[in-house]
Amino acid sequence: MTAAKILIVEDETPIREMIAFHLHRAGYETLEAADCREARQLLADERPDLALIDWMLPDMSGLELTRTLKRDKEHEDLAVIMLTARSDEHDKVSGLEGGADDYVTKPFSARELIARIQAVLRRSSQSVEDVVSAGSLRLDPAGHRVTADGADVQLGPTEYRLLNFLMTHPDRVYSRTQLLDRVWGANVYVEERTVDVHVRRLRKALSEHGADAYVQTVRGAGYRFSTRVA
Ligand code: CA
């Protein structure tokens, strides 16, 4: 595995160098930019995995830069952590709404910053790259494609997300409420029986490939994905 490449966008040189020093020591490759113009150049040339973006920059605010990056298809896989001296909730919310994946308030310790970086990189690599295999099934998140013994399984978007969640959390029982939170999102209002409808559709699609027994009903508890067929 190659080291993740991290772009540090911060106009205060001592802070930027201190961050680069600690990230280096933690095994990351680093790039440094003192303003948004330099940052854009490095983003285009070097394709970093993650950008640490200071809120207050001389040519454009870090929030604005984050917004434009997140709207740009070219940088959709880039993870962003915002750095700021502002600690109030309002700014935190606008940072996250602007598309930042996380937020670190100055002053922060190197240990805290690295923990946040690891968490964000773990989240983004899981959703983008890892192919998941279980039994005869193979799910490829990059291609949004599911196959059973090499044959394409046709799934709707919700069934795909449901299967993705179940395959990445095998051999555990999830209640309908837990599945709604994890697959549909905690803020979406959907009735619990919606889960049953999509599980039924998912099983039907899998049954054409003899793989429906992996999605198991656990009476009174919920659903479980397991290749150990009961
Ligand atoms: Ca600054």
Which key features would you list for this structure?
binds calcium ion, about 45% helix, alpha/beta, single chain, four-stranded antiparallel sheet, about 230 residues, five-stranded parallel sheet, Rossmann fold, Arc Repressor Mutant, subunit A
Quick summary of this structure?
The chain has 230 residues and is of the alpha/beta class.
Q: Helices, strands, pairings?
A:
Layout: E1 5-9, H1 13-25, E2 29-33, H2 36-46, E3 50-54, H3 62-71, E4 79-84, H4 89-97, E5 102-105, H5 110-128, E6 132-134, E7 137-140, E8 145-148, E9 151-152, H6 157-168, E10 173-174, H7 176-184, H8 192-207, E11 215-218, E12 222-225
Parallel strand pairs: 1-2, 1-3, 3-4, 4-5
Antiparallel strand pairs: 6-7, 7-8, 8-9, 10-12, 11-12
The structure holds calcium ion.
How would you characterize this protein structure?
By secondary structure, the chain is of the alpha/beta class. The protein has two domains: 5-124, Response regulator (Rossmann fold), CATH 3.40.50.2300; 132-225, Orthogonal Bundle (Arc Repressor Mutant, subunit A), CATH 1.10.10. 43% of the residues lie in helices and 21% in strands. It has eight helices and twelve strands. Strands 2-1-3-4-5 form a five-stranded parallel β-sheet, sandwiched between helices. A four-stranded antiparallel β-sheet has the order 6-7-8-9, covered by helices on one side. α3 (62-71) links the parallel β3 and β4 (79-84). α6 (157-168) packs across α7 (176-184), α6 (157-168) crosses α8 and α7 crosses α8 (192-207). It is elongated. Bound molecules: calcium ion (CA). The site of calcium ion has 6 residues, from loops.
